[in-house]
TrEMBL record:
SUPFAM superfamilies: Isochorismatase-like hydrolases. CDD domains: nicotinamidase_related. InterPro entries: Isochorismatase-like_dom (IPR000868), Isochorismatase-like_hydrls (IPR050272), Isochorismatase-like_sf (IPR036380). It comes from Pseudomonas vancouverensis. The keyword Cytoplasm does not apply. This is Cysteine hydrolase. Residues 7-179 form the Isochorismatase-like domain. GO terms for molecular function: hydrolase activity.
Amino acid sequence: MELKANAALIIIDQQKGILHPRLGRRNNPQAEERMLELLGHWRRTARPVIHVQHLSRSPDSVFWPQQPGVEFQQRFEPGAGERLIQKQVPDAFCATGLEACLREGQIGQLLIVGVATNNSVESTARTAGNLGFDTWVIEDACFTFDKADFFGNARSAEDVHAMSLGNLHGEYATVVSSDQILAAEAL
């Protein structure tokens, strides 16, 4: 893979609320560490970073604007010159100006990390792919939670994560690991 000089790193919903215990058991306990490694690399190489913040419409959400869960985790606070996109639905492109921002910056390659794999990450990656962006999802820099399927069968966070990545890979995005991204960059 070739990482473009202006490839954008899109970090989705790294807010305090995502750490709330009521969300249940999750996978990829090292995901934040991988996100921070990528963020550090993006900052060192002066590539664009876009932070996505969810402002829920639902008062019982961990991302409801009237409580601390909506705030960014301190380690994911946007830096100087980094873009902030606020959304009210899972898809970071829906009614946010994200596409216009990318087109204006002539950014065609997107690397997506964050949460939840089967929710905001998947919906954002699907739209990015449908809009023609060269879209990459970094599988070890995303995570999700245990979830029941439509028929009420309990599915582990690992299974939900794997199925979501399977939905994306090859049709909407290319799924890779953070090591693959950083190794390609070192060449």
